[in-house]
Structures are given as C-alpha cells and as structure tokens.
Amino acid sequence: MAASSSTSSISLQTLGRQTTHSNVVPPPPNVSRSFSQPVRMPVFRSDVNFLNKKVSFTTCNVLAEYESEGADDESSMNNNSNIKDDVFVTFFREAWPYFTAHRGSTFVVLLSAEVLDSSLLDPILMDISLLHGLGIKFVLVPGTHVQIDKLLAEKGREPKYVGRYRITDPDSLKAAMDSAGRIRLMIEAKLSPGPSLCSIRRHGENRRLHSNVSVASGNFLAAKKRGVVEGIDYEATGEVKKVDVLRIRERLDNDSIVILSNLGYSSSGGVLNCNTYEVATACALALGAEKLICIIDGPILDEWGRLIRFLTLEDADMLIRRRAKQSEIAANYVKAIGEEETSSILPKIGMTSNDRYTATFQNGVGFDNGNGLWSSEQGFAIGGQERLSRSNGYLSELAAAAFVCRGGVQRVHLLDGNVAGVLLKELFQRDGVGTMVASDLYEGTRMAKMDDLPGIRQIFKPLEDSGTLVRRTDEELLNALDSFIVVEREGQVIACAALFPFYEYKCGEVAAIAVSPDCRGQGQGDKLLDYIEKKASSIGLQSLFLLTTRTADWFVRRGFTECSIEDIPVERRKRINLSRGSKYYTKQLLPDTSGIRVDSMFA
Fold first, then answer.
1. What is the pLDDT at residue 67?
2. Helix (H) or strand (E) holding 515
3. Which of 179, 187, 445, 521 holds its CA 20 to 30 A away from the CA of 228?
4. Strand 214-216 relative to strand 256-259, pairing
5. 8 A C-beta contact, residue 446 and residue 320
6. The whole model's pTM is what?
7. 546 and 598 in contact (C-beta within 8 Å)?
8. Residue 401: how many other CB atoms lie within 10 Å
9. What tens digit of pLDDT does each residue of 278-322 get?
C-alpha cells in the first residue's frame, strides 16, 4: 500500500506480522522451456488473469513443485505450460531496464543479526549470489549482537549496553570474535557453490559454470577505542577510523563478494568490537555506494499497519526530529547532523550526484572533516536497549538511513527479511516491497510560478525556432502556467513540462517537455515525465497522450505507442493544427503503489 500522505501521522511501530502475497514468480533462468515434468521453482499463492485465462497456483517453497488446479489432462498441462512460458518471457522483458540499471553498481548490504540467526538467510544469500552473477558488486556487513548475547548467556553472563554501544569486556570480546568468525565461514560456505548445474548442460560445456563464487574478507576496517565516555569505560568497543576503500574496490573489481566484519583493528594491533550499523553506514559512504540495503526482521509500517514504501530525505528527517525527545537514537541523529532546520541541512536543490558530499580520507587516518560528515563519528551507530526493545519501532534503522542519504548515498532500502525473495522483488519491480529512503528523487522539481516565465521562454525559444515546439504567446503561457512543472537549479529554470488533464476521459496531455541545452543528457526529461506520470495517476487519470513532430523516438522508448486522432479527446481534437502533421501517441498508466508523493498540482 502507499504511504500516508502526511508524514506527521507515520508511526514506526512493528505491528502484527502480515502474510505477504507475491505476484506470480516466473521460472528461474536455468529452467528448460520444455515442461514434460513438473517444474521445481518458487511460487506463492496467487490468482492471476493472464491472456484472459484464470490460473490458480498453489503455495509452495523454493524447492517445491509448480502445480496448478485442474491440470488433470494433457491439454490442460500443455495450456499451463504455455502460460508459464509466457510469464517467464514477460518477466525477463520487464526486468531488462533493471538489469541495465543495476549492472556494475555497488550495493552495501547489512544483514541484521536476527536474520542471520534464522532460516531466512539461505534464500537471501542465494539471491545475492544470483544478483552477483548479473554484475552487481556486493559488500556484506553481517550483524552479530544476537549471536554474542547467546554465547554470553551460555556462560551465565548478561550483555551490557550503554546507549547505542555494547560494553565489550573480555568475555564479550571473545564472544564477538567467535560469532564473527562463525558467521563469516557460514556465509562463505553458503555463497561458494554458485548456481545449480542440473538444467543448463544442454547449452554445452562451459568451464565458468564450475567456478565457485569468490568471497573475500580481510583487515579492511581500522578502528579506535571508544574509550571512557562520561565516566563509563567501554573497554574493547571500537569506533570506525577508516574503511580501506582501495583494497575493497580491488576485490570487487576482481569479481568477489566482500564480507566486511564488524571487528576492527587498532593501530596497536588489538581487536575492537564495532557497531554493525556504524560499519555499514561508514562503508557505504566511503565507497560512494549506489545503495545501502538493510535486511531486517520486520516491515516499517505506519500507524494503520500499512507498509511505508517511500520517504524522501526531508520527510524522514522531519519524522526523526519530531521523535528526538522520546528516542535517544533520534536525538543522536539530530546531534550528528546539527540542530539546523530541515531545509538548511538538505543538499542544495539541483545538486547532481557528482556534486554531493563524498566520503574521503586524509593521510589514511580517517574522514576529512570538510566532506559533509559530522564530528568524529565515521558512520551512524544504532543499537542498545532502545533497538532491542523496539520501543520506538524501526526508528533506529530509519535514522541510519537518513544519515547515509544525507552523506551522499542516494538510495537506502529497509527490507523485511521475512518476505520471500525480498531482494529480487525490491530491485526488479517498479514499486518494490520494502521502504526506500531517497535523497534525490524529483529534487528541484516544483510547480511553475510567475517569476519562471522568462526562464521557460528562454528554454522554449530554440525549440520553437526549429519547429519542434508550437510557438506560444506570452498570454498563452500565462494562462497555462498552472499546468506547468519546472526543474530549478541554483535559481535557474533548467527544464519544464506541462500536464493538461481531461478528467471526463480519465486521460491527460503531456506537452512542452523541454530541457536547457546545457543540461541535456542528465536525465531531466525522464525526471519530468516520471513526475507527470505519478501525478496523473494520483489524480485518477488512466492514460496520457501527446502530439509530436520531432521527438517520437524518445517517447516510444519510454512506453508510448502511436495512436490515431480518434483516440484524442474531442475537445482537444478541435484545437489541433492539422497542417503541422503531428503524430499522436498514448500510454496506459499502471496503478501507482510506490508511495512516492508529488506536490499537489491541481486544486
């Protein structure tokens, strides 16, 4: 479900576990296209209308069999086989843009200790191995606090926490070292086999198929003792001093999955127990990762028990600040980034990803204080009794996500590890199944105002001179100004577009998409079109149409198809200048459940 439109009403409480019903899952790539026997593949209960035929699939796990009701005769089996083939092909074609977008990206994945201590781990690691094979670079940061506490309990010892940090006495350090070693070996073992070979031999012998997945670990984390803080000696508890970016990058570039332990090494040769979230957030910032993904033990829900699918950095920041008096971790977040108002701490409007704060190191000893990180902390630690008790729901994880977005990582995903296939569903479906916090979505995009007219006119002029756009008078622009959206950078309008709704026909016209020549090739046109599509869907429109003479290819690649003038609303048809010879294109809008909100454009 979509997130609440009012961030003030969001409550980050873990409500009752909800059974997740997925869409039909297509057969994996190694399944033969000939289904003479039942196919082994993951399927979850779902009723699907596909090609006007209703098929009901039974529930089964990853290793169970793909079945359907009413498949007692040969014709029914053939029919179901054809449908499965069609679903398989459709999935791959729809996933194509995601394959391209994610290939070569670096994802830092935090695996919470609760997930590691459950049966959820095996399928998650299987999916990480699959995605690694598709060209995604992974750094895995496993949590250990559950395992450490269990080992201490076996010895009759109680874990000791002060605030976000554990007091790591000698027994706790030994338990931390044992836990980290066992977890690393377990992850290495589970990742090593790679994909199954049973179904791909028909494609011929290939030595690459017999190569194990390479997993690398090492002394990538330099740490310093937390020391004595407010009279409390944290003993062998450490804080991140440096992440060895160069050597991690070397392993990633050599096609290895990197495991980054929360155990750091001091300059004197000691072992220090660091906070897992501090390590993961510091690593994501230092590497300049495209995503930080936190796989946790539950969903982030609003006060009505609905999944919060999306929060802007501004929304997340405001929500955390409002809870600063009730939550120590929220208060630490405010302290870490400063007391300024939200508007002043967010990245400047129009700042490109290359302009954002980037974590760097000075002389190999730590982060440069001038790069947008705060105080002496290198990442953001969460933990202790507040997180263990869940007294504030998943506010801790949200604070870490906002901190990382503030530092320059553009997307943070908080995923419920209880959802089968959660990584694949989040990364290869438009709306995902988790909570995304984003720092740059529609940044600088707003409704046009009177002061924007000169900027819009300046962008239009070369396109009007070339005949790409219809020439508009100042009066026409002024009358249509309420329907225009602009993208602003450093006080200048760099792109604009318009959406004219036809509510009676449940459709809208996209018009006048234009980008300043200096800013072309930066995705501003796509940002505007995506914004318009989401806005159109939010106001009940079911399709978009447009007229164009010179830019048909651009729109076709973005899902528009050519149509006839008869498909245009009658009142708009009357105003078409037929002498221009424009082509007509339309696009059906899918229901938007992403939770991404756009500003109110129409009263």
1. 42
2. strand 507-515
3. 179
4. parallel
5. no
6. 0.68
7. no
8. 30
9. 999 999 999 999 999 999 999 988 878 888 888 888 889 988 998
**CA pair distance 301, 309, nearest whole angstrom:** 9
Token pair in block for residue 135: 């060209």
Output the average pLDDT for the chain: 79
Residues 185 and 197: their CA atoms lie apart, in Å, by: 24
310-312 and 543-548: which strand pairing?
unpaired
Give, as one character, the DSSP assignment of residue 13: B
Question: Residue 72: beta bridge partners?
Answer: none
| Rounded Cα distance, 434 and 295, in Å | 10
In the block, which residue shows the tokens 């027994």? 171
Asked if 378 and 282 count as a contact pair (C-beta separation under 8 A), the reply is yes
Name the band, by pLDDT with cuts 50, 70 and 90, for residue 446: confident
Task: Report the SS3 class of residue 135.
Answer: coil
Answer positive or negative: Cα dihedral of 147, 150, 152, 155: negative
At which residue do the structure tokens 């090739």 appear? 521
Record the tokens describing residue 330, joined without a space. 């929220």
**In whole angstroms, what is the distance from residue 203 CA to residue 31 CA?**
12
**Among 326, 406, 398, which residue's Cα sits nearest to residue 374?**
406
List of residues 6+ apart from 333 with CB closer than 8 A? 320, 324, 380, 399, 402, 403
Share of residues in the chain with pLDDT > 90 (%): 50
DSSP-based three-state secondary structure for 392: coil
Element (H, E) at 48: strand 46-50
Tally: H helices and E strands in the chain: 18, 25
